[in-house]
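Study this:
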Amino acid sequence: MNPIIESFFDPHTSTATHIVYDKTGGFAAVIDPVLDYDPKSGKTHTFNADKLLTFLGSKGLTLVWILETHAHADHLSAAHYLREQTGALIAIGEHINQVQEVFKKLFHLEPEFATDGSQFDVLFKDNETFTIGSLTAKAISLPGHTPADMAYQIADAVFIGDTLFMPDVGTARCDFPGGDARQLFSSIQKLLALPDDTRLFLCHDYPPAGRPPTLESTVEKQRTHNIHVHDGVTEEVFVRMRQQRDAGLDMPVLLLPAIQVNIRAGQFPEPESNGVSYLKIPLNQL
């Protein structure tokens, strides 16, 4: 049974959020929801997340899963807000603990911040299966961009996070803490070994001038046309390209606020004595 998929695109962060469901009046999962954040004022809003809730309501859907493909560095997650509104479970890959350990040190977080992934409801292992109503889904570990990257396969569709972009954009960077270009190459090969007509749903698109944002590709298109990792590109060539390219990339605009929230499953840090939550900016560390 193939899923029904509705995709949403946030132009401010170039992020795709996908709703996957089995039937009208059935059950749904939201993948990579976005919390609106203004870096100039520090204000957050729920415009993007409320669009998801409106759609779910219009189809009579019960949200059972909020699936994160990884701890994002380019947008704040709306997972916690959606869990508060719906009671759905938040899930991510089991290796989120490695990401939490790195960034707890970088941000010098409070001693009681747990680095065991307990902020999330479910930590998926590689090849672990779960259900979305009448749909069967499988979690696929795809480390390389970060240690915790997960894809979610539901019948003929795979939601691949940042592992691959559209063929004319290429592949994910690997220079964040815990990233590894060789691991990414191996993870990409897992995806490219799937049947050619497998649909690949992206987490981002950064289209070149003249092309509108596109949120879906196929294994065949990636194998044939991906500018970084098409058929015939060896691991050594890919790793050398990725390392050289990453060395010249700027940090994402929202990395510092996003990571602090996203390793908490979308929750803000505990309010201080004045009732206000604060995010930290480590100076001269990145």
